[in-house]
Design a protein that fits this description.
single chain, mainly alpha, about 0% strand
Length: about 300
């Protein structure tokens, strides 16, 4: 059995103890809200609102999920969001990867000027009203293109991807391929992209999560409810639940008052169900991309 050659001092052990303590504290701070939300979504509404349920579920019931998933607009919103996310992420990658690769090439004339011009847009924007007028003049109101075209590229993601190409793809390999008669397009498609799986996964995750969670663009540009993404559908459900549960007149009977109270209790539990429904797909996808995510972000942030 091999023992460590470096002997830990009392100060080292004390420091290590503090590290473990703060890591445990961070774990509790992060894990408790997650467990609470899952437990509250399947617990008795009265026990949740009264504070009887503080960690593990009590009076397990799926009434909140039945009410939530029984709404047909939820499934339509899911289908719309999946479509918008896949289409939007595909467009993002198609624009971001070639742009970043071109800016990473030393032989690309004016690449610094193009980069600086793009970075300016990170600090200056036309604002909401000019953006709306532009989308309207292009005839994209109430269409899917209003959700995916305006955010087709993120300058920050282009910079990160460019840095990955500069620090990971050997220039000698590119020169050898060019000497052998490989065109720039073939070089990018058959050599650069297969070596760039980590950064592609990172960008797909970044863009995908952004599209999945987006609701503001739909709120501004869409008026047809059949086109609403999941986040907009869930937003409407919460608003309607709050309005119906808080509308209690002074001339109601005890039976009606009890019914409204039960509905108010159920509305509070539905809120937790909404969090689970909207977050679960992203949580399920992330573990498969985690190894690429860590590698891509570390390599893509080494060099400016």
């Amino acid at each position: 059995m091999q023992t460590s050659l470096i002997k830990e001092t009392r100060g080292d052990k004390l420091f290590l103890g503090f590290v473990y303590f703060f890591l445990f504290l961070a774990l509790v701070v992060v894990l408790y809200p997650l467990i609470y939300i899952v437990s509250a979504s399947i617990s008795n509404p009265h026990m949740v609102n009264s504070g009887e349920m503080w960690l593990l579920p009590k009076g397990i019931t799926l009434e909140g999920y039945k009410t939530l998933l029984g709404n047909n607009s939820i499934w339509r919103g899911y289908a719309n969001t999946i479509y918008y996310t896949v289409l939007g992420t595909s467009i993002n990658l198609i624009v971001t990867l070639p742009c970043a690769y071109a800016l990473s090439r030393d032989d690309f004339y004016g690449r610094r000027a193009f980069t600086n011009f793009m970075i300016v847009t990170m600090f200056l924007s036309g604002g909401l009203i000019p953006s709306y007028l532009l989308i309207r003049s292009l005839g994209m109101l109430n269409t899917v293109w209003a959700l995916v075209i305006p955010g087709a590229v993120s300058v920050y993601n282009v910079v990160v991807t460019r840095t990955f190409f500069q620090s990971t793809i050997p220039r000698e390999m590119e020169e050898a391929a060019i000497v052998d008669g490989c065109s720039d397009f073939r070089l990018f498609m058959q050599i650069v992209l297969p070596l760039s799986t980590p950064i592609i996964a990172v960008m797909a995750l970044f863009y995908g999560v952004g599209h999945w969670n987006s609701f503001f663009s739909a709120l501004i540009y869409l008026s047809d409810k059949s086109m609403y993404p999941l986040q907009m559908v869930l937003r409407e459900i919460l608003i309607l639940q709050d309005m119906s549960s808080n509308t209690v007149g002074s001339n109601v009977t005890a039976e009606v008052a009890n019914m409204l109270y039960s509905k108010q209790q159920l509305a509070a539990v539905i809120k937790y169900g909404v969090m689970i429904v909207s977050s679960l797909p992203v949580i399920m996808v992330y573990p498969f991309l985690q190894k690429y995510f860590v590698k891509g972000m570390m390599v893509g942030s080494i060099k400016g």
